[in-house]
Batch of 4 targets.
Target 1
Amino acid sequence: MKKRIAVIGALDTKGSDYIFIKSEIERRGHIAYIIDTGILGESPITPDVSAEEVAQSSGITLSELRQLHDKGKAMEAMTRGVAIVVKRLHLEGKIDAAFSMGGSNGTIIGTSALRALPLGVPKLMVSTVASGDTKPYVGNSDVVMFPSILDVSGVNRFSAQIYANAVGAIVGMIETGTPELEHKPLITASMFGNTTTLVNRCKDLIEKKGYEMLIFHAVGTGGQTMDSLIENRFVDGVLDLTTTELADELVGGVLTAGPDRMNAAAKWSVPQVIAPGCLDMVNFWGMETVPEKFRDRLLYPWNPNITLMRTTPEENEKLGKLLATKANQAKGETAIFLPLKGLSELDSPGNEFWWPEANQALFDAIKDTIREDIPVYELDCNINDEEFAKAATAKLFEILKKENELTNEGEADNAIHSTK
C-alpha cells in the first residue's frame, strides 16, 4: 500500500531540495504530502498545506508575519503552527510518517512538527546540527536525526546521495509496519546503573505475572519519556524506584528531567510504588566538568564520561521533602519503600557513598512530609537486595489487584443499571 509521508520545510528557500525529496519518495512507490513553512517568497511547487495555513494555525496570517519583519516572531509562529497542522493531519489519517530538512532554524521548525506525532510513527529530520547536542530537537520523542553533512542548500552529487539515503530510511520505517505482539498490561520502571540489579529482579517478577515492563534509564530524557507515556494513558502501574533525576534538578546536575518529573502518575491516578533510588548521587560529565564549588565534595568517576557526587544530609532533607510532596499529589493509590542499608550500589555498607546520616535525613524528611494515608515501608536491606525487589513488586501487585476488582465491580454495576 502507498503511504503518505508529510514532507515539511521552507519551499521558498529550499525548493529544489524538496522537489528532489518528493521525486525520491514517489520513485519508491509512496506519496509526498508537502507542507510549506517558508514565509519569504513563493514556492516552486504547489504544497498540500500552504505556509498561509501553517501561519493561521498559530493565530496569525502570513501577510501579517511578513509585515512584522521580525524573524524571531516568524519562527515562533511557524514552529507552533506546523506542530498543530501535523498533529491534526495524523489524527485525520492523512499522513503515515513525517520528514523534514533544514539548518538550525529549519531544524527547530521541522522537529516541532515531528515531535507532535505519537511514539512509533516514523519521523526523520535531515539536519546540519544532527551531529551535535540533539536534545533540544528530539526531546523525549523518537525523532531520527540524520546528518546532512552539507548545508541544506541545493542538490549536488554529495547531497543527492545523503537525501536519497534519508528517504530510504523513512521508507524503510513505514514499510516495516508494527510487529505482532501480545498486548499485556503495561508497567513502567525507572532504572540507573546503580539500581540495575533491583529493576532486573523486579522485571522477572513482573513478567511472571503476565505484565509487560518498560524500563527507562533515569538520565533526564528517560524520566521525561516515562512520564509522557503515563500522561498519554498507556500505563497500568509504575515502579518509580530510581528517582535520582530529582537530585540533579535540585543540586544542578546534568541529568535532570525537569521540575515536572513524577507529576504524571499523580495526575492520572496511576498506581505507583516509589523509592528514593540513587538519590545519594548527582551526575556530571567527566571529572573536569564538575563545577568548582563542588570540587571538594565526595566524587566518584563512574566512567570516563560520568562523575557522580554524593549528596549531603542537607540536600537529602530537601530531596525527601520534594519526593514526598510529589507523592502527596497522587490521586491513585501510592506506596513508598525505603531501603535502610543504602539507596544504590555505591551507597551500601563499606562502599564509597555509604553515609547513614545523609540517608536518615532523607528518610526522616519523607516520613515527616508524606500524607497520612500513603504508607511508608522501611526495609532493613539495600535497594538492590532481593528482599526489596520482592516487597516493592508485591505491593504493586496488591494495588493493581485492588484496582482491577474496583473496575470490575463498577462495570458490573453499570451492566445492572443498563438492564433496568
Target 2
Amino acid sequence: MDLLSRLLAMMPVTGRLDVRCHFGAPWRIDEPGAQAREIRYHVLLSGRAIVEDAHGAPVALHGGDIVLFPSGSAHVLHDGSGTAPAAVDSHMANGVTVATNAGAGASADVLCGRFLLPAVPQHLLRDNLPARLVVHSAREGSAAPERLVRLIALLRDEAYEAAPGSESLVNHLSGALFALTLRYASAGDAPPRGLLALAQRPRLQPAIDAMFEAPGKPWTLPELAELCHMSRATFARHFDEAIGRSAADVLTDIRMTLAGRMLAQGNQSVAEIGEFVGYQSDAAFQRGFKRHVGMTPAQWRSVARESPSDT
C-alpha cells in the first residue's frame, strides 16, 4: 500500500461544502482559523484571486486552482484590487450558503468548504503537510491529471444545479478532492517537504511500510536503515532531506494516531492499547500520549466519544 493510501486509511477524511460565492470585483473572503478537526479549502472555479495568510507571500490563483490550509490558519482571498469589497448578500440553497455581491468588476466563482478529520491526534497529518498548499489544476502547461480536472468540473456542476441528492454528493466529492489534491501535489516536480515529499522517495518506502504495518515493534534506526539497504547515516540523511524530521518522530506520530483511534472507537483498556502500539509499560504510554496529545489517554477517549462524528 502506498503512503497516501496508508495515511487516508488511518485517517479517513470527508468533506463539506459551505459556501458558493459568485462575486464581481471588488470582493474579499475572510476566513477565521479552522476548528481542531477541520482543514479549510477553496476551489476557484473561474476568474482570478489572490490568497494571503501568515505562511508566505501572497499567491495568485486562476480558474481551476485549489488552495487548502492544513495548519488551520486564518486567511484571506480577494480580487487584488485593494478596493473595499462590495456588500455581500447571502441565502441558503439546498444546505449550502450562496453568496453574491453587486460588484461590477471582473467576476469570480469560488467554492468554500472544509475537509473533516476523524477523532484522532492530528500531528501525523498536520505536522507533515505544508501550512498552505496550492494546486494549479487547469493552468496552461499544468501536468494535473485529467481526473482532478473532471472532479472539479463535477463538483461545480452539482453545486450549481442543486439536483436531488446534490448536497450529499457534493460533500462526498469534497472528500475525494482531498485525496486527489494530495496525490497531485506529491507527484509534482517539487513537492513540499513532509509526507508529500517522502512519497517520492521509493528507497525509503520499506521503512515507512514497516512502521505502518508493525507500529508496536521496537524499531531501531539501524533496523529501519537495513530494510532500505542503507547505512544508518545515509538513511537518516535521506529521511531528514525529505521530511525535515526523524524516523523516530514519524513512528511516534503513527503510534499515537493509531492509539487515538483505538481509544475513540474501541473497547480495549488503555494499557492494552499502549502495549499494542509499542509501549512496554502503561506508565510510559500514559506519559508519551499526554506529551504528544496534551491530555491523558482516558481524557482523550472521553472527549473523542463526546464529539460528533463527521467520518
Target 3
Amino acid sequence: MDSHALITNDASVLGLLAIILGLVFYTANSSNPQWKRFYAVVPAVLLCYFLPSLLNTFGVISGKESNLYFVASRYLLPTCLVLLTISVDLKAIAGLGTKALVMFLTGTLGIIIGGPIALLLVSSVSPGLLGVEGPEAVWRGLTTVAGSWIGGGANQAAMKEIYGVGDSIFSAMITVDIIVANIWMAVLLVMASKAKQIDEKAGADTAAITRLQEKVEQFQAEHSRNPALHDLMVILAVGFGVTGFAHMFADTITPFMVENFPTLDRLSFHSKFFWMIVFTTVVGIALSFTRLRKLEGVGASKVGSAMLYILIASIGMKMDVTMIADAPIYFVIGMVWMIIHASLMLFVAKLIKAPLFYMAVGSQANVGGAASAPIVASAFHPSLAPVGVLLAVLGYTVGTFAAWFCGQILQAI
C-alpha cells in the first residue's frame, strides 16, 4: 500500500467510507432547518463523491493503491444492476401512456446525440479536444457522463471499465456530471412549480396524471411491507447469485470472442466486464417477468441502491479535487450537451402536447436517475415519486446499452 497515506488498511478505509455515507444520509434526512437549507443547495450525492475525494487529495487514504473500487465494481455493481432492473414493470410503464415513454426515450436520444454534437461544436473552438488517444482521451471521459445521464452511477462505472477511462479525466467528468445535472434539475423544479400554467398554455391533457396518481397509490398499498430476514436473504441470493453466473459467463464468452472474432475488440466484445454487465442487465430484465419482481415490495431496489452508494464512495476516493480547476472546457461541453438534451425534450413535448410532468420526469429519469427522478416527480405530487423511480429503473435497464452506443459514436469522431 501507499506509505504516504495515513490509512492503508482497506477494512479501515471501507469503515471510514461507510461512516461518511451514514452521516450524509442522516443529515440529509434531518429535520434540522440548517441541514435542510444546506442540502437545498448541496446535493447529498455530491458529498458522497466529494468527501471521499478530499480524503484522497489530502493523503488520508490512497484511492490509487486501495482495492475497494475493484471489489465494488466487480461484485457490488453487477449485483446492484440486477436488483435495480428486477423491479421493472413493463406493463406499468406502458400504462403511463405513449407520451410518457416518448418523452423518456426522447431524453435518452438527446443524451446519445448530444454528447457527440457538443464535442464537435466545442472542438471547433478548441481543436486539442480531438485526436488524443489513451485512457485520458476526452471522448472516453464523456462516455462515463453518458452512462450517468442515461442510467446512473452503476452505468457510469460500467462505461469507465468498458472504455478504459483514466482516473484523471474521470475525476473531471464526475464534477461536470454532477454540477451540470443539478443545474438542470433546479430548472425542472422551478418549472414544476408552474406546471398548471405551462400545461394550460400548451393545451396538454393532464387527466392521465390523476389516474396515474390513483394507480400508484393502489400499487403501494398492495405490495409494500416491512422486509423480514428471509426476504433480505432472498434478495441477496438473487443479486449475488446472478453476479456469480455473470462472471462465469464472461470468463467463457470473452476468450471465445477473442479467438474467433479478433476484429470486434473495437465494440468492447473482448472485455470481460462488458459481458458481465450485459449478462446481469439482461437477466435482471428477464427476472422482472417472474414472481421475483415482487422482491421490490420488500426493498430490492433499496438494497441495490445501498450497494450503489458504496460504489459511488469508492469512485470518489479515486478523485483528485484539484482537477476541477483544470476542467473549464469540460464544463462547456457539459452545458452544451445539456442544452441539446433540454431543447429536444421541450420541442417534442410541445409537438405532442405532453404534460410537463412527463417531460420533467422523463428527462430526470435519464439525467438524474433513481436518486433525483423521485424528487422531481414528487414536486408535482407526493404520490407520484414512485413513477420517477419506475422510469429511472428503465433508465438503468437501457443505460448501459445506450451509453455504450454513444461511446461508439464519440470514438468515431
Target 4
Amino acid sequence: MSPSVPLDSVSVIGLGYIGLPTAAVLAQAGKSVVGVDVKQANVEAINAGRVPFVEEGLESVVAGVVAQGKFSAQTETPVADAYIVSVPTPFKGDHDADLSYIDAAAHGIAPKLTGGELIVLESTSPPGTTEHLAEVILEARPEFTMEPNLRNSLYFSHAPERVLPGRIMIEMVENDRIIGGMTPEASELTRDLYASFCHGELLLTDARTAEMAKLTENAFRDVNIAFANELSIIADRQGIDVWELIKLANHHPRVNILSPGPGVGGHCIAVDPWFIVSSDREFSKLITTARNVNDSKPGIVLDKVLKHADRFKTPTVAALGIAFKADIDDLRESPSKNITINLANSLADGTVLVVEPNIDELPPELAGRDNVELAGLEDAVERADIVLLLVDHAPFAEFDRDKLQETVLIDTKGLWR
C-alpha cells in the first residue's frame, strides 16, 4: 500500500527533449506542474505556449495546458509534492558520467523540502546515481530520512524514459515504464504518479536495476547496430551491396540484422552503453567493442568522401542531413553532424552544402564558415559534385533520383540503392 502522500503538484527540473513532454502530459492529466529550466529564453517561449524544439504533437499540448493554467515554467525551483529530475548527464574524462547537472538540481530542490516529497530521477544514469542524488539532498538536509511513513520522510526513485524522438507524445503515454525505488514505498508512490498519464504496464523494481535496465536496452541496440556497421565496412571492401546482403540474410527465420548507417547518434544509444562500461571496465568487453565500431564509422565515411573529392579541384559536397535520425531536428551526438564538420575542416578549397529540412540555421560548429552553406535540396544537388546522404529524411526519400545521375553518390543509408 502506498504511503499517504499528496502528489497534486509536480515540478519537472529540466525542460529538454524529455522533461518538457513529461511536464506537458502530467499537466494534461490534471496535475499542477511547474517546469524549471536554466535558459530564460526557453522559459519565456514555454509560457507563451511555444516549444524550443521540434516534436510532433508537443506544442499543441503545451499551449493547451499553459492556457488552462495547469503548467508554467520558471528558472527557480518551486515548492512541490513531487520533483522529477530530467537534466543532462554528459561525459567527462574517460566516458564517465558528469553528474554536475544532477547535483545542481539536488541543491535547488533541497531548500524547498518540508517532508513527504517524492524525488524521481529520470535522467539516464549509471547504476548508483539515484543513491547519489539522495545522498546529496540528505547531506544538505540531514533532518530528513528515507525511512518511510514518517513526518520527515523523503522518497527517492528512478524512472528512466523509454521513448523515441518523433514519437515521444505517443510513447510516453503508451510504453511500459520501469520504476525503481530506493524503498518499496518510493516505488509505489512513483507508480501512483506515473499512472496518472501512463497507460503502459508499470514495472516495479529497485533503483539500481531500473538504472541498469535503461542502459541495457540501449547497449543491446548498440551491439546490434555495430554488427550491421561492421558488416557494411567488410561488404564495401568486398564489392558487396550490404543492404542486399542483409535483406537476404534476414530471410532466415531466426536472423534479424539491423540496417547500417554513418554511425550511431542521439543522447541514448551513443551514450548509455559507456555508462555500463564506466561502471565495470574489466568485464564490459563486448559493449566496449561495439561502441568503438560505431564511433569509428563516421571516420570511414569521411575517408570515402575525401577519396572521391580528390578528383575535383574545388569540390562541392552536398551533405544531406545532420540530425541524428530521420525527420527530427535533434543534433545531439549526431554522427552526420560530426562528419559534416570534419568534411568542412578537410575541404579548405571546397564547399559543403548542408541540407537539413528540420532546422532554420546552422549549428554553431558550422555557422559562419566561408565554405559551408545551409541549402535547399534541389539547389544543393544541382550544384554538387558529390552527394553524401547521411540521414534518410522523408523529403530525401521522395526526391527524383534521376537528378542524381550526374553526381558522385555516397548513400550511407541505402535509401537510393
